[in-house]
Amino acid sequence: MTRPSRHTSPGNRPVARSKALFSRGSWPEAKRIGHILRQETVGGVLLVSAAVAALIWANSPWSDLYESIRDHTVGPAELHLDLSLGTWAADGLLAIFFFVAGLELKREFVAGDLRDVRRALVPVLAAVGGVILPALIYLTLTWGRPGASQGWAIPTATDIAFALAVLAVIGRFLPTALRTFLLTLAVVDDLIAIVIIALFYTDHLSLPALLGALIPLGLFALLVQRRVRSWWLLLPLATATWTLVHASGVHATVAGVLLAFTVPVVRSDKAGGPDAGPGLAEHFEHRLRPLSAAVAVPVFALLAAGVPLGGLHGLTSALSDPIAIGVLAGLVLGKPLGIMAATWFVARFTHADLDEELAWTDVLGLGLLAGIGFTVSLLIGELAFGTDSVTDDHVKIAVLTASITATALATLVLRVRNRVYRRIHEAETLDLDQDGIPDIYQDR
């Protein structure tokens, strides 16, 4: 059943309209995004479970064991890689996470629906708005607090796995365009975060090590451009790149993004061109996303989220810290307001309306979900204030509180919208013809 368009003249004649915001994409892209969302949802459940386990463990009689495991040092000292397990998780495992995020971002902009500039403009500017406003709110609320400005980037991040896991639970019937928007926004957000980490959280810079990293990075790029998949060739080069970036003083997770951007997205002409099937980037993404979602991020959460709460008094004391207030307000208020404002400006200056299936309440709900900072926020907190410092503990409590608050508020908004879309879904018949493509995609 075709729904009437809102864009008609008084005489029921259709009028010209601009490109709609969040319009339905292509069917192949919808299938691919659906597959990614299922994997990230499982990862999100594991992430939340690991964070809860870390909190319980760190506030139990066995908290000393938790701290000894997290602070246990392993690795070759001669390479300056004698790091604690917590640091290995933040620097090493999260490099896998950022490698997968880099592959996804490149895939979207080279071969996905976002290669259309008009389509890409919305999530990119929304991500930028969701970075700028939280940072401004944080800086405003922490003005005059010595050293607080170091943490300005903490409330700018969005946790992909956590947010998508929540969305899967509360918004099963929300349109695919909204899920795609949240996924793309979060990936762009992660790229901005890695640039911020590289530029603003590098204490010292060793140019010889950084320039040296270009050698294995270049060899890795040469091999993947020739479509080499052999792990015994690529893994040592990737490890060498990561080691040299780590030695340079730049946060080692930057290596993950640099490596990802060298991987080709489409097949070469000799292999049949773009229409011959998935390229090397999608191959690597398919192989590594389960490792990222099910191992790398949950282990990082287990080793990073364990903070002693100190009971009600300790919790109240932590959340009265201006830095914690700035983080909390930046994530819960700054994220949705920044995303909403940026999206509205796109609509205002491009004369585009929301797709006729959607409402601005949906954008608000997604903006609230983006306030779940967690993984990257915890990482930036450690970089800004030092692991195990009192301020870092306050930041962890603020990030956890903000994530819970953002989840609750997003649930209130999106559950109502989910019921609306469920009724639409039940009223409409999305028939699958023999070609296996829903009619609504063919109609468009």
Mean pLDDT across every amino acid position: 83
Estimated helix fraction:
55-70%
Order of helices and strands: HHEEHHHHHHHHHHHHHH
Instruction: Just give the CATH class.
Output: Mainly Alpha
Overall structural class, as computed from helix and strand content, comes to: mainly alpha
Task: Explain what you see.
There is one protein chain. It is built from 16 helices and 2 strands. The chain has helices spanning 27-58, 63-71, 85-110, 117-141, 160-170, 176-200, 207-225, 231-248, 253-261, 280-304, 311-319, 322-350, 360-369, 374-385, 390-427, 439-443, and strands spanning 73-74, 83-84. β1 (73-74) and β2 form a beta hairpin. The longest helix has 38 residues, at 390-427. It is globular and about 65 Å long.
Offer a concise description of the structure.
With 444 residues, the protein is mainly α. It has helices spanning 27-58, 63-71, 85-110, 117-141, 160-170, 176-200, 207-225, 231-248, 253-261, 280-304, 311-319, 322-350, 360-369, 374-385, 390-427, 439-443, and strands at residues 73-74, 83-84.
